[in-house]
Amino acid sequence: VEGRGASGERELRADAVMLTPQPRSQISLFERSGLDSEAARMKALPYQGAFTVLLGFERPLTDIYWINVLDGDAPFGAVIEHTNFAPMEPYGGPTVYLASYPDPHDPLWETGDEEVVEIFTAHLGRLFAGARSNAIRWFKVARTREASLVYRCGVARLLPPRRAPVPGLYYSGMFRVYPKRPINLIGADASATADTIAADLAGRPAPPESWLPEQVDP
């Protein structure tokens, strides 16, 4: 049911809500709602950032899908030529994804996109001679300071269960498939959470949790 709250803000009323954003982005929501224990739970979850550069080339860079980079001077840790795995047509040509996980205080976070591309392609040219003369058709830079859960010792004890302590509130997301990360499992957990919501609303038994902290290594 959609309406307007007392302050005039848009208000959406529902029997149940599934929260899917990464947990730390929910901190302010819980604090405003007076749910200090849930806010503290989210603050305790360790997350790492992801800094990625997507490049559209004129010609293929390699014939390999995924190459891990162990060069400590390179600003990226993996070269993923996506179009060696997926069809090239939707991308208009060869497409390469450079993955990086810089320290939170790394200057890259504040560097402009064009300069970032220059830095990344300079190192790419050192690793692959063919990159030096391979024209870039387009590029995209993405920054996410809190992208994925860091699997530290004991992190399983910090993870919230599928049902939040607030009636009608449910969690789903990458942390729900700990200790794994695949996107397909994340989608499967969202589906299972939806099934749990439907079961709870109908008073039926719900599917089991996708993980249980007491069943995984601390």
Summary, kept brief:
The protein is an alpha+beta fold and 218 residues long. The chain contains four helices and nine strands; from the N terminus they run E-E-E-H-H-E-E-E-E-H-E-E-H.
Structure commentary:
With 218 residues, the protein is an alpha+beta fold. Helix content is 22%, strand content 23%. It contains four helices and nine strands, in the order βββααββββαββα. The protein has helices spanning 27-32, 36-43, 113-127, 183-202; strands spanning 2-4, 10-12, 17-19, 47-57, 66-68, 78-81, 95-100, 136-149, 169-171. The protein has a five-stranded antiparallel beta sheet with strand order 5-6-7-4-8, with helices on one face. A two-stranded antiparallel sheet has the order 1-2. It has a two-stranded parallel ribbon with strand order 3-9. A hairpin with a 5-residue loop joins strand 1 (2-4) and strand 2. The two termini are 42 Å apart. Mean pLDDT is 88; it is low at 212-218.
Rough shape?
elongated
Report the uncertain regions: 212-218
Largest sheet: 5 strands, antiparallel
- The counted number of beta strands is 9
Mean pLDDT: 88
Distance, first to last CA: 42 Å
Structural class: alpha+beta
Instruction: Give the ordered list of helices and strands.
Output: EEEHHEEEEHEEH
Number of helices: 4
Binned strand content:
15-25%
Radius of gyration: 21 Å
DSSP helix fraction? 10-25%
Strand order of the largest sheet: 5-6-7-4-8
